[in-house]
Specification:
single chain, 263 residues, alpha+beta, Alpha-Beta Plaits, 2 domains, 4-stranded antiparallel beta sheet, two-stranded antiparallel sheet, 6 strands, elongated
C-alpha cells in the first residue's frame, strides 16, 4: 500500500524480508526457487499448503502487492492460531480423561480405569493367545486403624500400599485402587505360576513394611486373591474369581491368627 513500509509480511513464515511485488520463493530471471522455511508455529498440513502456494506463485510469475502479502500472512497466522487452539483443547480433553480414571489420593488407576485397562488386556490376550493374572488386594483391619489413628493415618497407609505396588510392577502392568481399602494388580503376558509368584511377593512386601505414624509403627496386613485370564475370559469372570479367592485368603489368614493366639 502506498506510503506504508512493509516489513516483509513473510516474516511469519520465513523470517526474511521479501522485495515488494515479488512472491517469496521467486527469483526473477531464474524462475521459481525453493520456498523459504516455514515457521514452526504451523502444523505440517498448513506448512504443505503454504509451500504449494509459494511454488505456484513462483511458477506463474505472480506479483503480489503489500496488501496481498498481508492477507496471506493473516490467513497463515489464523491457521497457526486455530491449530494451537485445537491442540490445547485436545490436551485438555486428554487431561480430563486421565483425571476420570485416576485415583486422586494414590495416583493409581481408579475402578473405572481398572476395568477399562483390564478389558484392553483381555482383548490383547485374545488377539495374541496370551495369558495374565489379576491380584485383588484387601487391607485387613483398615477400619480399626482409621478409628485409632485418624483418617490422615489411613490415607498415609493407602499411599504407602500404592507406592509398594508401583515399585513392584512392570511398565506394562497395571495397579489400581478400586475401593476404599481395595487394590488390584493386572500382570499381562504372565503365565499362572510366574504371575502368581510375583503377586505373592507383592503381598509379602506389603505385609513386611509397617508404616510409622506419629512415632508408632503400624503394621499393614493385606489379603489377596488371584485369578488368571486369557483369550476366553471376560472381565466379570476375572473379577468374580479374584474376589472369591481374596475372601478365601482373608478367612484363612484370620483363622491362622486365631490359632496363633490360642496357642
Amino acid at each position: 500500500m502506498p506510503g506504508v513500509e512493509y516489513m516483509a509480511p513473510f516474516n511469519l513464515i520465513s523470517g526474511q524480508e521479501q522485495p515488494p511485488g515479488q512472491p517469496a520463493g521467486f527469483n526473477g530471471a531464474q524462475g521459481p526457487a525453493s520456498p523459504p522455511a516455514l515457521s514452526s508455529n504451523l502444523n505440517p498440513e498448513v506448512d504443505r499448503l503454504a509451500h504449494r502456494l509459494l511454488l505456484s506463485a513462483g511458477r506463474e510469475g505472480a506479483e503480489f502487492d503489500g496488501e496481498s502479502w498481508a492477507l496471506i500472512e493473516e490467513v497463515l497466522a489464523f491457521a497457526a492460531e486455530a491449530e494451537q487452539r485445537i491442540t490445547l483443547q485436545q490436551n485438555r480433553i486428554l487431561h480430563l480423561e486421565s483425571l476420570s480414571i485416576t485415583d486422586e489420593l494414590t495416583g493409581l488407576a481408579n475402578l473405572r480405569g481398572f476395568k477399562r485397562l483390564l478389558k484392553n488386556a483381555i482383548a490383547s490376550a485374545r488377539r495374541h493367545e496370551e495369558y495374565g493374572v489379576v491380584g485383588y488386594i484387601d487391607l485387613d483391619g483398615f477400619k480399626a486403624i482409621n478409628d485409632e489413628f485418624g483418617h490422615a493415618a489411613g490415607d498415609a497407609i493407602l499411599r504407602h500400599v500404592a507406592k509398594v505396588l508401583k515399585s513392584k510392577i512392570r511398565v506394562s502392568d497395571l495397579a489400581a485402587r478400586i475401593g476404599g481399602d481395595e487394590f488390584a494388580v493386572v500382570l499381562d503376558r504372565a503365565g499362572w505360576e510366574r504371575g502368581a509368584r510375583r503377586l505373592v511377593d507383592i503381598q509379602q512386601a506389603i505385609n513386611d513394611m509397617p508404616v510409622e505414624i506419629g512415632g508408632t509403627r503400624v503394621a499393614v496386613r493385606a489379603s489377596m486373591g488371584l485369578a488368571p485370564f486369557g483369550p476366553t475370559t471376560s472381565v466379570k469372570q476375572v473379577l468374580g474369581h479374584a474376589d472369591e479367592a481374596m475372601f478365601a485368603d482373608k478367612r484363612a489368614r484370620s483363622l491362622k491368627r486365631q490359632e496363633k493366639i490360642a496357642s
